[in-house]
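Support request, please re-run this one:
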Amino acid sequence: MKKVIVFAGSNSKQSINKQLAIYASSLVENSEITILDLNDFELPLFGVDLEADLGGQPKNAHKFLKYIEESDGIMLSLAEHNGAYSAAFKNLLDWMSRIEGKTFYGKPMLLMATSPGGRGGKSVLAMAQDRFPRHNANIIGVFSLPSFKENFNGSQITDQELNNTLKEKVEAFQKAL
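Re-run finished. Output below.
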């Protein structure tokens, strides 16, 4: 059975991106799904001086990276803060990349984002599509859900066209596992 890790690039306890990621993972068949929460991997703010003082990277960065390494695929929905990654996600990525520059190990990835607005996190998705391949991400599909509150009812996407698009992306992701 394939192992898929699912998480949001957000530390919000009510993250709409986590809701989207969990819903997308419910569409994956015959796989072991592990849902991760950035709040369970608290990390100090990255800095080279702190890294030197610690004598390396914090255990939580190693722990999260091990989940990636041991998975067969990654489903990630990025929160967009001022057009970029959330500080919590960027900090995690910074720490992990000091352990392993090829952070995503070539694992198939379904990259998603949602937001309350009509652009659906498109700025952060563009940033990730440019950056993540340099960290050995194998991005199989990209999905943007605009206007979260209008298009998600708490358990699923209500707009049939958007829902069908996500299902197609999940199917391609699953085939790549």
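Residues 2-176 form a domain with the Rossmann fold fold (CATH 3.40.50.360). The mean pLDDT is 97.
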